[in-house]
Design goal:
It comes from Eutrema salsugineum. InterPro entries: Cyt_B5-like_heme/steroid-bd (IPR001199), Cyt_B5-like_heme/steroid_sf (IPR036400), Cyt_B5_heme-BS (IPR018506), Cytochrome_b5 (IPR050668). The chain crosses the membrane at residues 126-145. Belongs to the cytochrome b5 family. GO terms for molecular function: heme binding; metal ion binding. This protein is an alpha+beta fold and 148 residues long. The protein has one domain: Cytochrome b5-like heme/steroid binding domain (Flavocytochrome B2, Chain A, domain 1). It has 5 helices and 5 strands, in the order βαβββαααβα. It has a 5-stranded mixed sheet with strand order 1-5-4-3-2. It is elongated, with a radius of gyration of 24 Å. It starts with 5 loop residues before the first strand and ends with a helix.
């Protein structure tokens, strides 16, 4: 793998969540007993080339993106490409506190995103019912004007 193989913690990983600095943790299932270190990748240079788009990577940045990566069913060549972006590993023993704070931050962001989606859905439903009523009202108004 390329890179200098640094040992990182989750708090450091969580600082890399922007278009200019986008890091992902892949295969980051934590096992404190076995002291398993999982790989961190800097995919900043790959953002524009990612077939799924920039937003997919940015939404998974700064945290464990294993589930998102596996759900898509990446090819073996995509998995091989990760080696090019390798930064280091997460030390699971020293990262448990950081993991908890990172999870809390992510949960708060998820709740906020859900609230935004709910308000958009409410607005959409409102206009679905309001638009036909406005058209009906306009049609009745034109009919009344035409009769007079």
């Amino acid at each position: 793998m390329a890179g200098d193989g640094k040992v990182l913690d989750l708090s450091e990983l969580s600082q890399h969540r922007s278009r200019q600095d986008c890091w992902l943790l892949i295969n980051g299932k934590f096992c404190v007993i076995a002291n398993i270190r999982k790989h961190v990748y800097d995919v900043t240079k790959f953002l524009d080339d990612h077939p799924g788009g920039v937003d997919v990577l940015l939404s998974a940045s700064g945290k464990d993106a294993t589930d998102e990566f596996e759900e898509v069913g990446h090819s073996s060549s995509a998995k091989f490409l990760l080696d090019e972006f390798y930064v280091g590993d997460i030390d699971s023993i020293h990262s448990t506190k950081a993991k908890d704070s990172s999870t809390t931050t992510y949960s708060n962001q998820t709740e906020q995103n859900q609230a935004n989606k709910n308000s958009e859905l409410l607005l959409t439903k409102f206009f679905q019912y309001l638009a036909p009523l406005l058209v009906l009202g306009l049609a009745l108004y034109v009919l009344l004007l035409h009769e007079n």
